[in-house]
Amino acid sequence: MNAFIDDVRKYDRPLRIGAVSYLNSKPLIEDLAELASDAELILDVPSRLADDLSACELDVALIPSVEVLRDGEYEIVSDACVATRGPVLSVKLFSRVPVAQVRTLALDEGSRTSATLARILLAERYGVRPATELLPLGFAAEETSADAVLLIGDRAMKPPRERFVVTWDLGEEWTEWTGLPFVFAMWAARRDCDLGDVEEALCQSRDRGVGRFADIARREAPKLGITPELAHDYLADNLHFTLGSAEQAGLRLFQELAVKNGLAPEGVELVFRHYLSAR
């Protein structure tokens, strides 16, 4: 049935690519509109992209990695990803109390992978399983009374006005604890969706973007109210954009811990398309 729907969709509209609108994904979509000129590029926050891919409103999307762990119908279709091998800068947990005393946690509405990661770190390292609430997009950390607040993306890069007892960079916490990289987002499609040349274009776009950090930083920094130097260092030093063997190991450990803590279902196999395995 899904294959039939996909065939019909091809005649109704161009293939749709969903990408994240944050700075951390800009290297993954450099010249993508040119490289995949027959497709339509749509930008949104990670959680909405995941919903649209699930609803077949998108054909391929850069979605939170936890979504791939939760849906056995997805395949990872490129070795382009958003990962970190240390401090990530744009995913932070701010706590008003010592971590062991956190009882309530406000989660950035745009996040799913980071929300899962925060809950795993709290549970595994401190035995803390707080009640959670959503922090809507556009709301500042000061607008919730929760013990701790998770912020992601560009707004996490700016220090909050309030002083907090503890600040965690979740990339740093994960890598120091596990010794492995962490994969925040990756390109995924349903198993029966033929992407044609788009699969190759996703990797080509990443390759171009990685070679243009300075240009991307100069272009994007003014929109975010940060310096080009900070934007460049963030892209070059805090992020990694290739899903290699170490990233795959980190992803599998994340899956194991998410299942253990009831945050992902058992039995979902990670499937990598032929292009990724061939690189």
If you had to describe this structure to a student in words, what would you say it looks like?
This protein has 279 residues and is of the alpha/beta class. It folds into two domains: 2-83 and 181-278, Periplasmic binding protein-like II (D-Maltodextrin-Binding Protein, domain 2, 3-Layer(aba) Sandwich), CATH 3.40.190; 91-178, D-Maltodextrin-Binding Protein, domain 2 (3-Layer(aba) Sandwich). 39% of the residues lie in helices and 22% in strands. The chain has helices at 2-12, 32-35, 46-54, 65-70, 113-126, 170-178, 198-210, 213-224, 228-238, 245-260, 274-278; strands at residues 16-20, 40-44, 60-64, 74-84, 91-95, 104-108, 131-135, 148-152, 166-169, 182-190, 240-242. Strands 2-1-3-10-4-11 form a six-stranded mixed β-sheet. It has a five-stranded mixed β-sheet with strand order 7-6-8-5-9. Helix 2 links the parallel strand 1 and strand 2. The longest helix has 16 residues, at 245-260. The chain starts with a helix and ends with a helix. The relative contact order is 0.21. Mean pLDDT is 90; it is low at 1-11.
Q: Radius of gyration from the CA trace?
A: 18 Å
- Helix and strand succession? HEHEHEHEEEHEEEHEHHHEHH
- Tell me the CATH topology of the largest domain: D-Maltodextrin-Binding Protein, domain 2
Query: The biggest beta sheet, please?
Result: 6 strands, mixed
Dominant shape: globular
Number of contiguous helices: 11
CATH superfamily of the largest domain: Periplasmic binding protein-like II
Question: Ranges with pLDDT <50 over ≥5 residues?
Answer: 1-11
Q: Total strand count, please?
A: 11
Q: What is the strand content?
A: 15-25%
Q: Terminal Cα separation, in Å?
A: 32 Å
What structural category arises from helix and sheet content?
alpha/beta
